[in-house]
Design goal:
It contains four helices and no strands. The N and C termini lie far apart (146 Å). The longest helix is centred in the middle third of the chain and has 61 residues. It has 168 residues and is mainly alpha-helical. It is 74% helix and 0% strand. The chain has a domain of 108 residues. Helix 1 packs across helix 3. It is elongated.
């Protein structure tokens, strides 16, 4: 047994490790899931199956997969074995994107609510400040009363001047 002098570093693993880009693989799985989920794929796959069965039933010379169509079943099994995990991976990525979108929407809603509450407080403050301020209607009423009072005083002064004897 070989003894290592430096115990501060972990021993290197001797396993065969495959390095791949998880994001690129996720994008690949999403493209596969998008392809499998289309009507075009189903039509093409159905056409291939019809042609496969037709050739193997009708043609005696080109018969590579006789009646129980074991090779066709193997192809479908292989497709299903790979499709299911790829579709699940695509769903997981979509779920993560949805979660991030929901979190972002929640943060935006919180900021909007805080802004709305701030504006409501500001409007209430302005309303309280304006509660003591006279309106234009009130000012017009005051001017009308003052004008009427001045007219009455002018009339009284005119009456006083008219009732005084003329000294000159």
């Amino acid at each position: 047994m070989k003894r290592r002098e430096d115990l501060t570093t972990p021993r290197q693993s001797r396993r065969l490790s495959v390095h791949y880009d998880p994001d690129a693989f996720g994008q690949f799985s999403e493209s596969i899931a998008r392809t499998f989920g289309t009507a075009r794929f189903l039509v093409i796959q159905s056409a291939i199956v019809v042609v496969w069965i037709g050739i193997n039933v009708v043609s005696a010379v080109l018969r590579w997969d006789p009646y129980p169509f074991i090779l066709l079943n193997l192809a479908f099994s292989t497709q299903a074995a790979y499709a299911a995990p790829l579709i699940l991976l695509a769903q997981n990525r979509q779920e993560e994107r949805d979660r991030m979108t929901t979190d972002n929407d929640r943060k935006v809603a919180e900021r909007t609510q805080a802004d709305t509450e701030f504006l409501a407080r500001e409007i209430a403050s302005v309303r309280l400040s304006l509660a003591d301020v006279s309106t234009s209607g009130e000012i017009e009423d005051q001017f009308d009363r003052l004008t009427a009072a001045i007219d009455r005083l002018s009339a009284r002064l005119d009456d006083l001047d008219a009732s005084r004897p003329a000294d000159s």
